[in-house]
């Protein structure tokens, strides 16, 4: 797996769109009603910046690892980027099976992606996306060198690249990561 290019974008004036509160017992996120619209308005330009680094134009020629904040976010991402429905299948399945469990959700997406790639192989290039407080867009253009280990490497990349904005919100994310690598 090759981390080809990574970018981050903060959308000014969106500090209330994803609001995280830490308490003694947990962390609670409140997602604003305008979050899907804000993502929809900005995602295409953001993704184009990443894929042009690989000389690609068509979003459907990529594999996708998207942290599923909710169905509205995935629906808008799919329609705005004109993605075939199977491109976000792993994200939808993780959301359906586990819900949005904060940073941990990406590990469920990775597990489903790993299962799918074992069965059918995969594309050479992919995008990994996550959205954090602020609204902050995090994106990584990834080149698959060996499809069968793709998810393990994407997980490492997410931990390193998004650790301070996404994973650091939830200590359980690190525990799940250790469990993920131990059993795979």
UniProtKB/TrEMBL annotation:
Gene3D superfamilies: 3.40.47.10. Pfam families: Chal_sti_synt_C (PF02797). Keywords: Membrane, Transferase, Transmembrane, Transmembrane helix. GO terms for biological process: polyketide biosynthetic process. The keyword Transmembrane applies. InterPro entries: Chalcone/stilbene_synt_C, Polyketide_synthase_type-III, Thiolase-like. This is Chalcone/stilbene synthase C-terminal domain-containing protein. Belongs to the thiolase-like superfamily. Chalcone/stilbene synthases family. It comes from Vitis rotundifolia (Muscadine grape). SUPFAM superfamilies: Thiolase-like. Residues 2-145 form the Chalcone/stilbene synthase C-terminal domain. The chain crosses the membrane at residues 150-169. GO terms for molecular function: acyltransferase activity, transferring groups other than amino-acyl groups.
